[in-house]
């Protein structure tokens, strides 16, 4: 009847016992089982003692070991969680561990990783024994391979407290009798020698056990004591100490505290990168900011030599803690992202992504710069919604930053973000900023990299936006006074040729490339000749076989272009351009600006250095395979097109000046020519673009449509013609230039937000925009024809040569 009202004590034990773990059957009074905590399902280890199957003596030993484990705490001792006693069993729940013997058998570490792991483990057990012997005034009396356990983080924990004694309370023989026969092999030799027993110290028996543990760590389980004399597999750094530990004279065995002091010295066994790192992380809360910065900056180079489980379960949590609750700052980013690669995606989303989002909201420029530089290490783990809603709004502020380094790194970061951005963020916001940077930024390197980045992300743009923007942007770049920017524009046209209609190639691309054949810089001329020959070869093939036109233009209107069409062979040379490097401007590094000073002393060449200086400052410019200059069919052979690195325009000393620098040596009128007015007869009447320096806008200012108006460009595209009604000059704007066309072809109307899942309203809106474009094109053609007829019938234009009539016969 009383049993009916009694309470089952296991109901208060919040752990479920799982399957048993082998290795401890005859070497411990406990049996080890896997377990899980109810509710959270966290993994734990359950040490179970069967009361009914074991003797009363073993039960007393088990209860004594439970008491010691429960009341003794140290980082290198097995961590106690909970316990429960019933009529049948005695339960102890600890952190999840596995026997060291099992871990060593399954360990796949080799070389330096294995050596560091074993050294770190031996150090932890030595530290635990120093705590017990010196601070706790206790003897463990059971140090061996089967009393040590390994956690998920690779930490060695000392357990097996069945025979632990306190000094001053032992009997005549301080070494207890071990009831389990399998453990007698680890008894020190003085146990049966009363003479040597008198010289035993408080730590001599545990030091003998430490020597046995070291031997087993490098050789496997100990079969007999004479095997301890074999030291072939023990590291040379450890041999002297090992011989002292297994000495027959107990008085000659060192104290564990002395062992740590000796081996932590330079050249000692415990002096290595892993132990140094782990000890620093344990004391990181008391380190100053300078020490933390130095530590984190050097940590990344050591991580490759550390065991993976130690990195993931020990070092990474410490870094995250230092980031959230310490003053580690941006220095912790590099090792944190490197270790994040070892995580599974769910763990990455849970641990690393919140840190990334928090860091992008930081106002510290150093932090933002490091994030942008390391974007490629974590972008693949970010969800599209996270990028668009939380990260991109912070990144886009970098386009307006007054610091050139931040602007440049923001431009480069779009290459990694483009595939995850939605329609509005990529086709509207990004292109707005790209248009402004390419036309107004005062840094030539940033203008160059904007062109390179646009070519890299072309495949991700909406087909209609892509068809409008690419040619206009790249043609504008070919007029830039900075030589690398012109070269980038030429190579970008070549690398994205599959997105151009053949009519665009003939009417806009080739006319824009031809003036570059007389460019002052040879690299630009070479790229222009090569690209012109390629485009001419493409047009010639279509002329010979018109059926190829459809294949050549297959990717123009496709959202996900592929190279499985007729143009694939011709475009093979440009496929790998998306992996090319960016131009390295002077803002990338903090070097002395002596090259800038020398450039400023030459008024004629601030933005456009001479050919000789170009060859030295852009020594890393993309090397392009030279083509045969014969008129044979091989000129158009795709195998001869080696433009894989069109964006690889590195310069160690080039500087970018103002976009409208008066030192530009481009032909008058070329920089002001709009790509829609390819009328050779009017080139001589265009006003030369005046000098102007782009204004830097602080991130705090609000951008509106009025700020997208560039009066210089508008006036530059105006044409001066003589009125037919009189002799005065009339200033008439170019027919194609409207209020929205303030960026030389990058119209604001092209960046109106469009939902990604377009419905019928969006379709009708696109049709309306297409109809308006056709009307503007027809209007321009009519006005151009009217101007031609006016020139043919009206007064002669200024500067026109008078053809003298032949003398009469």
TrEMBL record:
Residues 747-759 have a biased composition (Acidic residues). SMART domains: S_TKc. GO terms for molecular function: ATP binding; protein kinase activity. Residues 610-626, 660-669 have a biased composition (Low complexity). Residues 628-642, 765-788 have a biased composition (Basic and acidic residues). It comes from the Eukaryota. Residues 592-669, 687-710, 724-809 are annotated as: Disordered. Signal peptide: none annotated. Residues 699-710 have a biased composition (Polar residues). Residues 18-270 form the Protein kinase domain. Belongs to the protein kinase superfamily. Regulates COPI-mediated retrograde protein traffic at the interface between the Golgi apparatus and the endoplasmic reticulum. Involved in the maintenance of the Golgi apparatus morphology. This is N-terminal kinase-like protein. It comes from Bombyx mori (Silk moth). The lineage of its organism: Eukaryota, Metazoa, Ecdysozoa, Arthropoda, Hexapoda. The gene is 101736470.
